[in-house]
Amino acid sequence: MLRFTCQPGCSKCCEVSGFVYLTEADLTRIAAYLGVDQQKFERRYVYRTRHQRRLRKPRGKNRQCPFLQDSHCSIHPVKPVQCRLFPFWPELVSDRSAWRETARWCPGIGQGPLIQIGTALEIADEMRTAYPEAYGN
Questions:
Q1: Where are the chain's structural domains?
Q2: Contact between residue 7 and residue 108 where contact means Cβ atoms under 8 Å apart
Q3: CA 61 to mean position of chain CA atoms
Q4: d(CA 79, CA 14)
Q5: Beta-strand pair 53-55/46-48
Q6: 5-9, 14-18, 44-48, 127-131: least confidently modelled range
Q7: How far apart are the C-alpha atoms of 81 and 131, rounded to whole Å?
Q8: Phi/psi class of residue 13: alpha, beta or left (left: φ > 0; alpha: ψ in -120 to 50)?
Q9: Which of 39-48, 62-71, 119-128 is the most confident on average?
């Protein structure tokens, strides 16, 4: 069993290095939320590779998510699947040492109600479904 609940005011998961990957549904939802058409959103915020779409990181010193503003997510109601499911990613849920390592910087791990491992694995499967190219599906 695991414990996790986001802590008020915390944005540590948004501050780590790496990319935020987007599904087509993420693109549509976020563009609508921002009130821009999807093409304009993509030109401004998305970097596409052959198999992936990811948010562009701002240039310069602060190279975190472009939607992290004043230590909070400015698109929280429509945040990408990857963000919504954190920390229930397959690579964290299936590896105790990775979970414990993440707990070193994520104050929400170890907090809140107990979550059955089966439930955590089901949530992690949502990541596999959303990002099949990342998980070899």
A1: 2-130
A2: yes
A3: 21
A4: 11
A5: antiparallel
A6: 14-18
A7: 9
A8: alpha
A9: 119-128
Tokens 């087509």, located at residue: 24
The arithmetic mean of pLDDT across residues 109-116, rounded, is 94
Both tokens of residue 115? 């979550």
What is the distance between the alpha carbons of residues 67 and 78, in angstroms, rounded to a whole number? 11
Q: Residue 55: which of 6, 95, 14 has the closest Cα?
A: 14
The reply to whether the predicted model has a pTM over 0.85 is yes
Return the exposure string of 24-63: e unless at least 16 CB atoms fall within 10 Å of the residue's CB, then b.
eebbebbbeebeeeeeebbeebbeeeeeebbbebeeeeee
| Whole-angstrom distance, CA of residue 22 vs CA of residue 56 | 11
Confidence of residue 56 (pLDDT cuts 50, 70, 90): confident
